[in-house]
Amino acid sequence: MNFNYQKARELMVENQLRPNKIKDKVVLDIFRNIPKEDFLPNEIKTFAYFDSDINLLKNRGYLKNLHIAQLINYSEIQKNHKVLHLGALTGYITAILSKLSNEVFAIETDNKIKNDFLNNIQKNKFENIQLVEGSFEKGFSQKSPYDLIFIDNPIRKVSEDILLQLNKKLGKIIMIEKDNNYVNQAVKIVNNDDKFSKQYLFDVFSKYQLYEEKENFVF
């Protein structure tokens, strides 16, 4: 029997997202219509809409669907926004960001995953996404400033290099700040004329970490 992914997406929206205050129709429709299974290896496609993290690399993967939707919801993305996505993996979240914004610049450093990303974006015909050569620590200053910098796997601290790539007129970072091996906090950092504020959003329980940071991180 063939697995009904469309039905699984609908159940994910109705049972995981709607009951947890994800109400925006545009956001819900994007989650209904982007086939997450297309961005996963064959052996784990049927896990796409489970209420759990999905491992792709040793210490990285996709967070549970609700956390992805919460991060997107708090991003308040506008159609004219320019977005930098750090840790693009196979492209699923990048694809969601692209549906809401004007253009997305994505950074991924794992070579195999990068090839999967490019294949998935091309296959699904996302035309406002560009994979760029940058680093998770340094970002991609060539196309800054960004209205949104999106970091969906936990990091300890965000670097000054990344902060400086935000639009000074309320550019924001949506990220997950790692507290220990499993407990993390989703936060929003806003730049208002080089005055930065940070707001706690919600707790995230995940073992993931985007990269191992050095000690010279500042915020």
Give a quick summary of the entry:
The chain is an alpha/beta fold and 219 residues long. It has helices at 5-17, 25-33, 65-75, 92-100, 111-123, 160-163, and strands at 54-57, 60-62, 82-86, 103-107, 129-131, 148-155, 169-178, 183-192, 195-205.
Secondary-structure blueprint:
Elements: H1 5-17, H2 25-33, E1 54-57, E2 60-62, H3 65-75, E3 82-86, H4 92-100, E4 103-107, H5 111-123, E5 129-131, E6 148-155, H6 160-163, E7 169-178, E8 183-192, E9 195-205
Parallel strand pairs: 3-4, 3-6, 4-5, 6-7
Antiparallel strand pairs: 1-2, 7-8, 8-9
Helix pairs in contact: 1-2
Pick out its properties.
219 residues, 9 strands, seven-stranded mixed beta sheet, 27% helix, globular, alpha/beta, 6 helices, two-stranded antiparallel sheet
Instruction: Give the tally of β-strands.
Output: 9
| Unreliable residue runs | none
Structural class call reads alpha/beta
Chain-averaged pLDDT: 95
Helix content: 25-40%
Major sheet: size, sense and barrel closure? 7 strands, mixed
Computed Rg: 16 Å
Label the overall shape: globular
The end-to-end span amounts to: 51 Å
Number of helices: 6
Provide the β-strand percentage band.
25-35%
Give helix and strand order, one letter per element, not per position. Answer: HHEEHEHEHEEHEEE
